[in-house]
Hints:
Layout: H1 2-6, H2 10-21, E1 35-39, E2 42-49, E3 58-61, H3 73-79, E4 85-88, H4 104-117, E5 123-128, H5 130-141, E6 146-152, H6 165-179, H7 183-188, H8 193-204, H9 219-234, H10 239-243, E7 249-254, H11 263-271, E8 275-280, H12 287-290, H13 292-304
Amino acid sequence: MNGIKKSLGGAAVVLAASVAQAATGVADYSKTPNHYVTVDGTKLAYRTIGHRSDAPTLVLFQHFTGTMDDWDQSMIEELAKNRSVVIFENAGIGASEGKTPDSVATMAHYAEGFLDALHLSKVDVLGFSLGGAVAQQVLADRPELISKAILVGTGPQGAEGFKDLPNVISDSMKKSAETNVPMKALLFFTSTPEGRQSGLEFVKRINNHTVDPEPVASQEATQAQAKAWITWGLTPANNAQLEAIKQPVLVVNGNDDLIAPTINSYVLYQHIPGAQLSLYPDSGHGSLFQYHALFVSQVNTFLDGVR
């Protein structure tokens, strides 16, 4: 990682140091500008929001194809009231340059390099969906970097149902065309009236960035991330790796997740010694967005607890 640090240059190092001390304090996520660091010759984008706090920085790893603009604005702003939040974008996604990795291991390598470049250690991590797999890999590779972890809508290696991702997306695309309901509302939320309404409200709270708005994931990036997700699910289970996790972990999901079937959250809970499990009713992959107020409350309680 020494090469990574040397590649930053003086200005980036100063910026990194300021981020480690405090976030921007901007209250409106839609106005947070992009910042950049270089990892292995690849420029990676990130944003910071929140107020100065003695609490560890919370770093967010995003879902399959998701950019920084795809985070729920209300949830981000609520999380940032109690701590500094850093929203990280892996290679080849959104404003980040480079080729999108097609393996979780390589994504984790970039994430680890990103934390090293910003001199961030003992951070708290929130990994959603594919980002949850990346967080697990970082916990295995570099456990000293993470203090606490929140794994949402994800699963371990060997996870059930991950190979079905192409069919799940295809079905949602078809239903979206037939019903004129945004695909993400179909993928992330249940088909009940409450779930459908939550999905429609959610899509209004994303992609509202007025500063440095980002392009959607390219077809090449989507294919690479799909390969990483499916391969993670097809890789033989490694319970020993989960059982070696020493950090407190909060596992969250909806009761009917189409992308990361809910049973996988229970498997994580079973095998991670310090895990807590929270399942939300009538919700799917986007449970953290459907119940964003409850989710933020649980996250704050979990992160503010004994370390």
